[in-house]
Amino acid sequence: MHIAVTGNIGAGKTTLTTMLSKHYGWDAQFEDVDHNPYLEDFYEDMSKWSFALQIYFLGSRFRQVKEIRESGKNIVQDRTIYEDAYIFAENLNDMGLLTERDFNNYSSVFHLMKSFVSAPDLLIYLKSDVPNLVKKIYKRGRDYEASISIEYLSKLNEKYEKWISNYKEGKLLIIEVDDLDFVERPEDFGYILEKIEAELHGLF
Ligand SMILES: Nc1ncnc2c1ncn2[C@@H]1O[C@H](COP(=O)(O)OP(=O)(O)O)[C@@H](O)[C@H]1O
Ligand SMILES: Nc1ncnc2c1ncn2[C@H]1C[C@H](O)[C@@H](COP(=O)(O)O)O1
């Protein structure tokens, strides 16, 4: 079983991935954030570092895809390779922060990799509005994320909405998280588990 948790920055992916892996006793796969050699520089100068960061995330995410394929274990994954290409890289290109030449180069590598990628059995989209994302990013308190603008988050949210509304690769569960506190309220976590189990009925 392969479940992936998707959503904008601060939506709660890492938190929910951790909780689900503990609850089901499954392995968790997290994004390469703390040891990422480009992320801090990227937020200081997006135009300069966007290509290097995208290549780094693509490689790191593809390594995860390979591990998921080879391990045969049940896995909960924090963010997918699709988001790097369809959300972040596309948005940086739209914003003029990733040149056409670099975006085309990136996209051709991504499309090659995509042919080796299997979609998760279930994609869980944590849908959140921008003010809530801002609150959560502030609460998490990574210094280098202080420069993230409302405009950047809004554009990413638009990309998420477009991608999710066309997603047909596998089962999809959309959870509106703005009024949920699945950390402090067991009933909210229970609500998410019920939804997951209803979607995966027969696969458990
Ligand atoms: N539903 C929630 N209820 C309460 N706190 C949350 C919730 N989702 C996320 N948080 C908090 O918001 C911050 C960002 O969450 P995180 O899981 O790191 O988001 P993401 O991985 O999507 O960027 C963390 O401090 C986390 O504890
Ligand atoms: N592909 C990406 N391009 C730019 N930035 C990215 C990409 N993937 C992740 N990020 C950033 C966004 C956050 O600052 C950190 C961690 O993501 P999060 O949504 O908080 O788990 O990396």
UniProtKB/TrEMBL annotation:
ATP binds at G7, N8, I9, G10, A11, G12, K13, T14, T15, L180, D181, F182. GO terms for cellular component: cytoplasm. GO terms for molecular function: ATP binding; deoxynucleoside kinase activity. Substrate binds at E31, Y43, Q54, R79, D84, E145. Gene3D superfamilies: P-loop containing nucleotide triphosphate hydrolases. The active site is at D78. Pfam families: dNK. InterPro entries: DCK/DGK (IPR002624), Deoxyribonucleoside_kinase (IPR050566), DNK_dom (IPR031314), P-loop_NTPase (IPR027417). Belongs to the DCK/DGK family. It comes from the Bacteria. This is AAA domain protein. Residues 3-197 form the Deoxynucleoside kinase domain. Keywords: ATP-binding, Kinase, Nucleotide-binding, Transferase.
